[in-house]
């Protein structure tokens, strides 16, 4: 039995049945940018109709993050390793924050704490005032590895996996998945397998898997590091478009100064381990940004100076 894919634009009709019952779905776009779904069901000589409205635009409510006197200590064969020590950090709702720093300075440790993968040794990390005490669908994570998708699932099924335990009707899930694929530019690739996609497209699918759950924070750990320069630039621009469309809060860790200044509306440079903030760089430049712009290069020089270059 095939799957009916309801498109956010125009109308699409389809039906399926089990021999006794036939269900027909009709989708249309409403003036207020919602998907109107008619569900006609015929069974045992009776016909019934249901109507429901599904939002086809991003419904993300951005969240703010607060980190206070955060400390993270690991223990190895040589003793205690202090990754983060006394870190204070505020991330505003809807902000795009980039973090730069030397390898091993504690950037990924911070992201793991904010994702709920690890607990701090002391101090607090909160999301909208509530302690982060474990992973949740409020925090979505995209890693550097472009092979993070389930290889035995199609792109559509990978994105649908994020809604597996969400209480929505089948029609609502279909509409939500389709609108999310459209948002990231993969609306024509839902039936492809991950190995059939480029590295950049696989990362877009990973982003879609996060966005479909209405996550309020997108945590990204060097998501484009494995991509070639041209693909990386295209992905950066696409990420800006997604951020502007959803207003989701984004924290992106990178080793690229150009990437940090190009993407974020604020960039933090961390010190060597243990992680502390060496400098905060507000980036008040409109998008799309140019790497040849004089202000861009002034901000880049500040970051490079604090990185020791």
Protein described:
The protein is of the alpha/beta class and 309 residues long. It has seven helices and 14 strands. The strands form three sheets. A six-stranded mixed beta sheet has the order 10-11-12-7-13-14, with helices on both faces. A four-stranded antiparallel beta sheet has the order 1-2-3-4. A four-stranded antiparallel beta sheet has the order 6-5-8-9, covered by helices on one side. Strand 2 (21-29) and strand 3 (34-43) form a beta hairpin. The longest helix has 18 residues, at 229-246.
List its traits.
6-stranded mixed sheet, 4-stranded antiparallel sheet, 7 helices, 14 strands, globular
Itemize the secondary structure elements and their pairings.
Elements: E1 12-17, E2 21-29, E3 34-43, E4 46-55, E5 65-76, E6 79-91, E7 96-100, H1 107-115, E8 122-127, E9 130-131, E10 139-142, H2 155-161, H3 170-184, H4 199-211, E11 217-221, H5 229-246, E12 249-253, H6 257-263, E13 266-270, E14 277-282, H7 294-306
Parallel strand pairs: 7-12, 7-13, 10-11, 11-12
Antiparallel strand pairs: 1-2, 2-3, 3-4, 5-6, 5-8, 8-9, 13-14
Helix pairs in contact: 2-4, 3-4, 6-7
- Going by helix content, strand content and strand pairing, the class is alpha/beta
Number of helices: 7
CATH architecture of the largest domain: 3-Layer(aba) Sandwich
- Run of helices and strands: EEEEEEEHEEEHHHEHEHEEH
Q: What is the beta-strand fraction?
A: 25-35%
First-residue to last-residue Cα separation: 60 Å
Q: Rounded to an integer, what's the Rg over CA atoms?
A: 22 Å
Question: What characterizes the major β-sheet?
Answer: 6 strands, mixed
Average pLDDT over all residues: 84
Please indicate the count of domains: 2
Low-confidence stretches: 1-59
Biggest sheet: strand arrangement: 10-11-12-7-13-14
Q: How many beta-strand elements?
A: 14
> Based on CA inertia axes, which overall geometry fits?
globular
Please give the CATH class of the largest domain: Alpha Beta
């Amino acid at each position: 039995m095939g799957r009916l894919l309801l498109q956010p634009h125009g109308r699409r009709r389809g039906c399926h049945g089990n021999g006794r019952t036939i269900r027909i779905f009709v989708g249309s776009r409403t003036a207020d940018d919602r998907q109107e779904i008619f569900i006609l069901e015929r069974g045992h000589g009776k016909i019934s109709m249901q109507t429901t409205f599904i939002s086809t635009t991003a419904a993300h409510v951005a969240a703010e993050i607060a980190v206070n006197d955060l400390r993270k200590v690991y223990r190895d064969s040589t003793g205690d390793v202090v990754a983060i020590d006394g870190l204070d950090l505020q991330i505003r709702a809807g902000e795009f924050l980039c973090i730069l720093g030397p390898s091993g300075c504690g950037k990924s440790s911070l992201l793991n704490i904010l994702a709920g993968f690890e607990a701090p040794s002391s101090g607090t990390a909160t999301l909208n005032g509530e302690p982060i005490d474990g992973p949740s669908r409020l925090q979505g994570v995209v890693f550097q590895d472009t092979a993070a998708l389930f290889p035995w699932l199609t792109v559509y099924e990978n994105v649908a996996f994020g809604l597996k335990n969400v209480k929505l009707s089948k029609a609502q899930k279909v509409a939500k998945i389709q609108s999310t694929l459209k948002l990231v530019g993969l609306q024509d690739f839902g039936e492809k397998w991950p190995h059939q996609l480029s590295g950049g497209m696989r990362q877009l699918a990973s982003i879609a898997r996060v966005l479909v759950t209405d996550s309020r924070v997108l945590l990204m750990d060097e998501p484009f590091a494995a991509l070639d320069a041209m693909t990386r630039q295209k992905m950066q621009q696409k990420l800006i478009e997604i951020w502007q469309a959803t207003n989701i809060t984004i924290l992106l860790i990178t080793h690229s100064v150009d990437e940090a200044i190009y993407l974020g509306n604020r960039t933090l440079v961390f010190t060597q381990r243990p992680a502390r903030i060496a400098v905060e760089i507000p980036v008040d430049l409109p998008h799309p940004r140019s790497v040849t712009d004089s202000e861009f290069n002034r901000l880049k020089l500040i970051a490079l100076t604090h990185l020791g270059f």
